[in-house]
Amino acid sequence: MGIEVGGLNRGTYTELNVVPLIDILLVLLVIFMSAPHQQKGLDAMVPQPAIEGSPVRPETVIVVQVQRDGDLRINQEPVSWDHLAGRMESIYKERATKVAFIRGEAPVEFALVARVIDVLHGSGISVGLLTPGLEQNR
């Protein structure tokens, strides 16, 4: 930038020198043009087609029944108290949703139902309770 003082009209006259500004602009242009080539984004995983050999079977609802005498059944299949946790873990091993329902017969003690809930929670399974009102709505 240059400034001249004086002249014919005794005023100030300024002249803008834009050559240094163009040099800076060209340097910034080169920097911004080369910058995107140095960056690398995230690797994308392309979805693979499903294997036709393995049919997907629908997941059945698992119901743990607590009988009057304290016996247990998993979907009408008898199971002992000692094998309940292992059996439930093997059932839910490859399932996405881990939810089981508990159904107790009418005169069952709450302590037995609470024990089943404790075993299921220890196995990482969410618990729902089936009541006669819920079963009638189905």
Explained architecture:
The chain has 138 residues and is an alpha/beta fold. It is built from four helices and seven strands; from the N terminus they run ββαβββαβαβα. It has a five-stranded mixed β-sheet. Strands 1-2 form a two-stranded antiparallel sheet. The longest helix is centred in the first third of the chain and has 16 residues, at 19-34.
Largest sheet: 5 strands, mixed
Along the chain, the helix and strand elements come as EEHEEEHEHEH
Form type = elongated
Residue-averaged pLDDT, rounded? 82
Computed Rg:
38 Å
Q: Which band does the percent of strand residues land in?
A: 15-25%
Distance between the termini: 86 Å
Low-confidence parts: none
Number of strands: 7
How is the topology of this model organized?
Blueprint: E1 2-5, E2 12-15, H1 19-34, E3 62-66, E4 72-74, E5 77-79, H2 84-91, E6 99-104, H3 110-122, E7 126-130, H4 132-136
Parallel strand pairs: 3-6, 6-7
Antiparallel strand pairs: 1-2, 3-4, 4-5
How would you describe this structure in keywords?
single chain; 138 residues; alpha/beta; five-stranded mixed sheet; two-stranded antiparallel sheet; 4 helices; elongated
Task: Offer a concise description of the structure.
By secondary structure, the chain is of the alpha/beta class.
